[in-house]
Amino acid sequence: LAKITQPISMDSYEGQEVNITCSHNNIATNDYITWYQQFPSQGPRFIIQGYKTKVTNEVASLFIPADRKSSTLSLPRVSLSDTAVYYCLVGGERYNNNDMRFGAGTRLTVKP
Amino acid sequence: DTAVSQTPKYLVTQMGNDKSIKCEQNLGHDTMYWYKQDSKKFLKIMFSYNNKELIINETVPNRFSPKSPDKAHLNLHINSLELGDSAVYFCASSQGTSRVDEQYFGPGTRLTVT
After folding, report:
1. CA-based nearest distance A1→chain B, Å
2. pLDDT for residue B17 is more than 80
3. Mean predicted lDDT score pLDDT of chain A
4. What φ, ψ does residue B67 adopt, rounded to 5°?
5. Which helix (H) or strand (E) element contains residue B34?
6. Residues near B79 by Cβ (< 8 Å), separated by ≥ 6?
């Protein structure tokens, strides 16, 4: 099973690009990497998902190297409203007990 | 319209009691989930369920049981509540039966066991 590690916290300033890296050394062949954002007192919200290389959508990019042992969520030009906890999720299409796991979350604080 | 809703939002109860948390999704999704988020913000899946398959996280005590009256609802029943059950419980849903599908989370139910 993939052990998921990500930084506990990060600080940034408005307008900067923020990169949050997730380590998943034991990722399985059929595992996908998904990132969620969570604001206080709310449920997590999907940001982006990928399997390999690079994925980009309107809010973020996800970089996955060839060995897939890590992934980096990139948030371009963050604003104060991006202050939240970001979770890395690694899991496969066929769910089986513990094979879908979240990292502990990275608390991002964006300062003015 | 709320996509995934949970009731109650807050639940305070005593040890040993039995309680239920309700979840409804109006997205027409096929799969629903229950998660537990502890005080350190760790998110852990408890169950995933569609009309064909219930998958249980083996670490979840059998005091916890999901019950689905129909595809739009997945309620969580907890028997003999313990102090360690205090947490925020999230319901979620996804469109298909593949768990890599984007999940939509409810607002959470904060359970406090005294």
Report:
1. 14
2. yes
3. 91
4. -140, 130
5. strand B31-37
6. B18, B63, B64, B65
